[in-house]
């Protein structure tokens, strides 16, 4: 059986590592916004890289369990409860038929990731991923890009977890503090010369806030407007984390469900590891940026992938 959605909440989506090699078709990569939390939830359970999980944004999701399994929830503190009792995050738990999992209001962070042992058994869309991209109508439970709805059944293979599995938890040093001051690493891009030195200094020296108009396509920043030497350019492909600066001078960090091409100048890109933290930044929170070297960003990404691709125990 699996789990039945009793209440879908604000925004609950089936997500995985996303699609690769599809941007030339005009399709977004999609996938989880916070790979750190998602990867830990699957790793705790011994799931393979890319296993689908539920991305719960801002809470409200209620699920009824219909079969025995082990779960792990990592990421934002959304007041998670099991049968009305608080359930700790970042560790493995056993659930039984008839149990109810509920996500309440955010206490810290924005998105939590619910994984089950063996992963949710969902057919991939476009042959490779179940990542839900609502704007494009791709992925998800039905393959049509729809968010989770009341009555949806999320299938998994029932199993009784071992005591060894149930003892697993994430070491404290790897659990982020989503309320800490947020400073994100940025790799300067090929178009950095499109911005005068004063504009770059302003971008890195000031504190920005994350706008309530942000979504899975892009995080919109609010602060003192910065001006580049050129307001428009020939449209080109857009990478994950690219910081484009439109005519109003308010930067937009392009995220998983971004459009594939754009014509605004881009001063650089937020690194993949920093994007995990940005995904948990609540609206109105201050955020600042610091330049970093490309090789440092690549080293961090290699370490991340090497760890979660391994089958070694913690």
Automatic annotation (TrEMBL):
User: Origin, by domain of life?
Assistant: Bacteria
Sorted alphabetically, which Gene3D superfamilies does this protein's record hold? Answer: Cyclophilin-like (2.40.100.10)
- A GO molecular function for this record? ATP binding
Alphabetical keyword list: ATP-binding, Hydrolase, Nucleotide-binding
- Keyword ATP-binding assigned to the entry: answer is yes
Domain named Carboxyltransferase: residues:
24-305
Which NCBIfam families does the UniProt record give? Answer: urea_amlyse_rel
How is this protein named in the record? Allophanate hydrolase
Source organism of this protein record: Terasakiispira papahanaumokuakeensis
The lineage, from the top, is: Bacteria, Pseudomonadati, Pseudomonadota, Gammaproteobacteria, Oceanospirillales
């Amino acid at each position: 059986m699996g789990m039945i959605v009793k209440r879908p909440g604000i925004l609950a989506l089936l997500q995985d590592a996303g699609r690769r090699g599809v941007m030339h078709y005009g399709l977004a990569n999609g996938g989880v916004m916070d790979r750190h939390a998602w990867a830990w939830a699957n790793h705790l359970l011994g799931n393979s890289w890319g296993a689908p999980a539920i991305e719960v944004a801002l809470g409200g999701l209620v699920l009824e369990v219909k079969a025995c399994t082990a779960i792990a929830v990592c990421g934002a503190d959304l007041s998670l409860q099991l049968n009305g009792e608080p359930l700790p995050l970042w560790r493995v738990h056993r659930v039984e038929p008839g149990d109810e999992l509920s996500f309440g209001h955010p206490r810290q962070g924005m998105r939590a990731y619910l994984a089950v042992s063996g992963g949710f058994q969902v057919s991939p869309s476009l042959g490779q991923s179940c990542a839900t991209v609502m704007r494009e109508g791709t992925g998800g439970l039905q393959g049509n890009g729809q968010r989770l709805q009341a009555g949806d059944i999320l299938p998994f293979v029932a199993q009784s977890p071992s005591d060894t599995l149930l003892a697993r938890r994430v070491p404290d040093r790897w659990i982020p503090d989503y309320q800490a001051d947020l400073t994100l690493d940025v790799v300067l891009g090929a178009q950095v010369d499109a911005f005068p030195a004063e504009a770059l200094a302003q971008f890195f020296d000031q504190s920005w806030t994350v706008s309530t108009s942000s979504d899975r396509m892009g995080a919109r920043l609010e602060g003192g407007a910065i001006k580049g030497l050129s307001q428009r350019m020939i449209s080109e492909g857009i990478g994950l984390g690219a910081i484009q600066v439109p005519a109003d001078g308010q930067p937009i960090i392009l995220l998983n469900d971004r459009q594939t091409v754009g014509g605004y100048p881009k001063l650089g890109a937020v690194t993949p590891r920093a994007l995990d933290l940005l995904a948990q930044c609540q609206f109105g929170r201050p955020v600042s940026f610091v330049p970093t070297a490309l090789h440092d960003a690549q080293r961090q990404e290699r370490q991340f992938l090497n760890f979660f691709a391994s089958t070694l125990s913690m």
